[in-house]
Amino acid sequence: MLREAMDSVQLSSPRAQFLCRSLKREQAAETFDRLTWTDPSLADQVAFELTNQAGDRKAFQVLSAILASKRPQVSEHFAPHKEALLHTTSRHGAREGQAELYRSLLERFPEAASPELLVLEVLPNEGGARVVLEQLEHHPEWGQRVADCILSRHHNQSLEDWRVLSQTAAPRHRPWLAARLLQPGKPGPEFWQGLEALGRIPNGLDGLRQNLFDRLLLEPELRRLCAGDVMAVGVTSQAYAALLDQEFSQSLAERLQSNYQGDIQKLSPADQRALVALGSVSCRRELIRPIAMQELERRHDNAALDSLVGTFRSEHQNAQMRRMGDAPDVTGKIQAAREYLRSVVHRVIPSSLELQTRPVLERLGPQLTPEEKAQQASELLEEFVQAARASKADLSDLPGSAQEALWLAHMLGSTGVTPALQPYLSHALSGPVQALTSEARRQEIAHLKEQLAGTPLEQARPLVERLLACQAPDAHELWSERLPGDHWTASYSADPARRYAAYYGGEQFRELSARLGGEAEHEAILRACAEVERLIEQGVPVDQARQRATFDYLVPGTSDPAHRLELTPRGVQVGSVRLKRKG
């Protein structure tokens, strides 16, 4: 032993130490490779120095790069130190990249591997499970010994441990696994690994399925239950496949179908999670097809539910695309196109409809002659018009089929779509009707603006009112810009909307403005005008109505001109006004 220690001391030289300090990770493999044939003795010394300094981050990175090289001569220089390197975890602690170092060492020195070394040294490192499983492919007989060694840690198993355990558990480990998985509380990532482990054991899940599934449904986040979602654990799909056998899945699907009330959002949280679980197993997905097919038109608040239904939506759309190509007549092609649109137009935002429904037009368009397109577009548009009339012009009860018909008529190039939408330009709509009325509204606003530019001011009111009905944001401004600069309304408000209201108050507005001394607030004059009209409708003579709307209901007294006076209780509250001192 003393002789070996003295030899080791002699191996350490200032030149080797200097070379280890100066090595860069990028050139380490190439430099050491050159040493193996130019100066083998120095290569031995460098290998010794790197082994001693493996706890240093820089030395560790250099060592990893050298051992990862493909040169077989490297093994000769590190062979005396393989035991020390294979126990580097216990000496220096687990670290990032250590698993790659172990992979390189075990590839060079496979005879040094053992089940205990894999569990105690390799597995604690990040990515160590992958290296252990690779070694078990070469030594499958080690599986149960590896599992025993992992379980000997009692309750200190990491996620890496569970990953290996899921592949190595044997029937004798079933009681321990079942006890751990049935512990109360929210299931974590290790739950899925343990579930997969039980599924690999023959009859490992017998008698445990319902209890394990109930615990599974404690997970509040649907996305973590969806095997196809990026948020889910990688083994979710295998775990589901092990847990949901045919009989258990069938009873679960029957329960969901009985609880389903036409809207997936009305299912209880537990039922929604169970639905996601069934949809995550490809061989069980058909059991929930009846529910999913009724949800094709909806947008769902949860990404997991929408992804689940989206699987069936894609299948449905592909089937309709094939049907469009295979249908022997125009009627069949149009019906297939409408079925495709039904699964799109009611769930995407209107601005994306053109993009989402383009495949239908690209598939259907070349199969129809211009005459067939015109005829079908006319019939579809007529269907929309009849349905819109039946909905009493507010379109609140417009059936979805009418919206699909309108959109398909638009896609086929019907020129009658815009005229048919004229009565609904001022309505708040959704879906395809919203997209098309928005375009029709833009066209109508542009047309009215052109007309307004050449219309006398006295005749502009109908055009402005039509612009307002079309929700044109600058209707008042367009009108107000045409007023003369010294127009009398300019002295009361700079707001174009108020100037518009005052201008069309006409003589009545002017007269009340003069009666209130010309210094009244703009709003007070407008409200006084409204009071005059109300009194006239009640049969009060015009002169009396004007008088009562101003002085008869004000109490000026001897107050200062700037003092604000309120209306008496007999009058209608029209605000406060300022009056000049009387007489």
Secondary-structure topology with pairs:
Elements lengths: L1 H10 L2 H9 L2 H14 L1 H13 L4 H11 L5 H6 L3 H5 L1 H5 L5 H11 L6 H8 L5 H11 L4 H9 L7 H10 L5 H8 L7 H12 L8 H8 L5 H4 L10 H8 L2 H14 L9 H11 L9 H5 L9 H24 L3 H13 L10 H4 L1 H7 L5 H21 L9 H12 L5 H5 L9 H23 L7 H9 L5 H6 L15 H8 L2 H10 L6 H16 L4 H8 L34
Helix pairs in contact: 2-4, 3-4, 3-5, 5-9, 9-11, 10-12, 11-13, 12-13, 13-15, 14-15, 15-18, 19-20, 22-23, 23-27, 26-27, 27-29, 29-30, 33-34, 34-35
List keywords for this structure.
single chain; 583 residues; mainly alpha; 61% helix; 0% strand; disordered N terminus; disordered C terminus
Gyration radius over CA: 41 Å
Beta-strand level of the residues, as a percent range?
under 5%
Averaging pLDDT over every residue, what do you get? 80
Total helices: the number is 35
The stretches of 5 or more residues where confidence is low (pLDDT under 50) are 1-11, 555-583
Query: Residue share in helices?
Result: 55-70%
Question: What spatial form do the alpha-carbon principal axes imply?
Answer: elongated
Please describe the biggest sheet, giving its number of strands, its sense, and whether it closes into a barrel: none
Briefly note the structural class of the backbone: mainly alpha
Total count of strands: 0
What distance lies between the first and last C-alpha atoms, to the nearest angstrom? 127 Å
